[in-house]
Amino acid sequence: MHEFRMPSLGADMETGTLVEWLKKPGDAISRGDIVAVVETEKGAIEIEIFVAGVLDKWLAQEGEMVPVGMPLALIATEGEAPEASSKPIPIPPPPQQPTPAPATQLPAEAQKPAPPVAPPPKPMVQSAAAERIKASPAARAYARTHGSDLATLAPGTPGGAILRADAERGAGASPTTPAPARKSKPGIDFDKMRHAIAAAMTRSKCEIPHYYISTQINLRRATQWLSDTNASRKPEARLLMNVLLLKAVAHAVKAYPAFNGFYLKDGFAPAEGVHIGPAIAIRGGGLIAPAIHDCDRKTLDEIMTALRDLVSRVRAGSLRSSEISDPTLTVTALGERGVDTVFGVIYPPQVAIVGFGAPRLTPVAHADGGLVAETVISASLAADHRVTDGRLGARFLSEIAEKLQEPENL
């Protein structure tokens, strides 16, 4: 029997709240199926499973806060029979209130002093459909307490989760704690996210001996190739310079695998695949770097499609656990903000982060002694001194620069 456990969705995660089960006991499950939604400081994350079988029983209920590594459910894999008790846990009906005896049945002398009997309390209403509604734990608790039906409520943001404020409005109550404007995005608490980012970065700077190096990369050939390629394409099919940068890093890290992996208890563990995590800003605040899997084996168009998809889902608050948990190297590019150089902080347990600034026209000296205006970009590396040193880091940045001189081979 396979134990499906609460996954770790980053170095800053200790617990997660089980928001919703998407599979019930008795359902067949395939590898890669999304079986649950878990709420963390990064928002509501869809949790995938990587075994096939039958969901035998739930070990955690919706609304429950579960530590990382604790079992959420049991999966009967091939050749195993589900337990006889593996049936959905029935929701018991509300307890029946005892029916008071009519006053006429009391002796005459007892009828006069007998106080009026209060009607039984209204049972808490919760339709079966509401159990499948996407709602925060606080909203579910409020609905249960106040007899509201989540199926009749609408989230404050189209397509989002029902929050406590939505449940309060549906019950005709004034929200007890008005949500700050920054929390308009469903499923993300920006204060908690900022706290989680601060905790992870503090841990990084305390535990990881960083070293920093940077270089200037000539983008003349990459810029010309990109312009020629996009000239015959429709706007929605055009490539961005960031795609070339991601692919160049992915190719370079294949030659220098010491920058692609994780520093764990037993030391450095090189990653089997190249899963580049592009840093994506979240509207309203915060940053997240979900993985583009096997970035070295994807074409430029495939990376462009994957990047667009990640950006749209980050802003919609819809990410999958595998995208959060296994980036092997982070790339941050602040060129669109006009930044010349960015020096990142390593996200543990990764061992490196590559940064790119804004491409700029800069006078470049040629061998004949003349100056020519060229498009250059600043590339930086922050790396873990326990695994590599500045000499190897310099060679890694030079490899990235060389890849960008042959954009047609990326």
**CATH third-level topology of the largest domain:** Chloramphenicol Acetyltransferase
Percentage of residues in strands: 15-25%
**CATH H level of the largest domain: which superfamily?**
Chloramphenicol acetyltransferase-like domain
Order of helices and strands: EEEEEEEEHHHHEHHEEEEEHEHEEEEH
Q: Provide the residue-averaged pLDDT.
A: 80
Instruction: Using the alpha-carbon principal axes, give the shape.
Output: elongated
C-alpha end-to-end distance: 44 Å
Low-confidence stretches: 84-95, 100-115, 117-131, 173-186
CATH architecture of the largest domain: 2-Layer Sandwich
Count of domains: 2
Number of strands: 19
Nearest-angstrom radius of gyration? 28 Å
Summed up, the helix count is: 9
Under the CATH scheme, which class of the largest domain?
A: Alpha Beta
Estimate percent helicity: 25-40%
Largest sheet: 6 strands, mixed
The helix-and-strand class reads: alpha+beta
